[in-house]
Design a protein that fits this description.
Blueprint lengths: L1 H10 L5 H14 L2 H43 L5 H22 L1 H26 L1 H4 L3 H47 L1 H10 L3 H13 L1 H20 L3 H25 L4 H42 L5 H11 L5 H16 L5 H24 L7 H42 L8
Helix pairs in contact: 1-3, 5-7, 5-11, 5-12, 7-10, 8-9, 12-13, 12-15, 12-16, 13-14, 14-15
Amino acid sequence: MWGSQFLVDFQGSQVTSDGGLILVRELGEHLGFGELIEQGSALKNLAGALHTEALKCTLSVGREVKTEMPDQTADMGFFDKRTASVLSTILLFVALGAFIYGARSVLIAFLFAIFFAYLLDPLVSRLQRLKTVSRGSRSIAILEVYAILCLAIAVALLLVGPRIMNEGRRLGEALPGLLENVSSGQIAQQIGSRRGWSYNTQVRLGQFLANHSGVALGWVRAAGTHVAAVAQNVIWLVLIPILAIFLLKDGRNFTDNILGMVERRQQRQFLVGITEDLNGMLAHYIRSQLILAGLSLVVYMVVLSLLRVPYAFVLGPIAGIMEFIPVVGPLAGAVAILSVAFLANYHHLLIVAGFLGIWRLLQDYVTSPRIMGGTLRLHPLAVIFAVLVGGAIAGFIGVYFSIPIIASMLIVWRRWQRTYAGGDGSVKA
């Protein structure tokens, strides 16, 4: 009775090697020889089963180790998929930056062509809708717009061109002598004697100008270098209108083809939204800048002529064109007007300075907000930062493109928030 009960307990237990020897000794003390043989057979069968299970476990563990080893080796490798993706992205941006730097002059010409196309697009679209004029053809509408533009330029040159050329020639002839008077300090005596300055004041001012003549001449040389650089690229004045013709004719097809290459619906909506916002912003910004610059040009020429400022028909167009350059342009135009008036010994500098200040306030707080509206939605600090960074990176061209570029970046950010981040991200164009 005890043996059978012991057999059942034994067969249902887990046996180790040491435990098995102790168990055999206990069996030998309590059981007889026959029962011991019977229990030994059971022990043999159980040991065989345990041995078989141990081999299975060993083989299973070995297979798992072999299976996991390649993944561990891959994880320990130097170039995994994530590292390769990061390095390829970095190399792509480096290559893109090198391409932009190497082809910067061509890219700048294409940017100006895009701006010029945005400027003419409303008139082209309006003429295209007038079937009696263009018969619904966009190509004919483009040719008609260019014909109108050339006619307007020809009329303007016929009306004021001769006087502008005459005063420009006179200013070019007088400028070297005026600069010589500044560098030698003689201009202080000339102006002081006419305005009743004391002799000591004239001498001190003359000495100051003579001591700092190198600085003034350096500014003049730098300005001459920039003018020469612009003159070397005068060929782009012919190529930009030609490039704009192709953009006006096939620009929308280019955009539709690029957007058609995107397969995912969400990404396509994102790119379509960016394209629409950029089109609205750039078109309105360029036209507003043209209106503001044209208005300033006319006002400068009329007021300076009424005040009898020397070379008014040269200074007016220069200051008006400088209005295209954000922040820095109006300041540079005002400095040019005051500098030439001072060198030409103009007697009413304070009146000219007052006019420039009043006109600047009217432009910044009256006309510009009404014409520009809330298109850009940029903080003044962001505008100043963009202008400074653009000037440091690309000089004059960088300053000109700084505002559209930062406004475009802001549009992309807001559109991304609206599409992917689930935010408001509303963009007004």
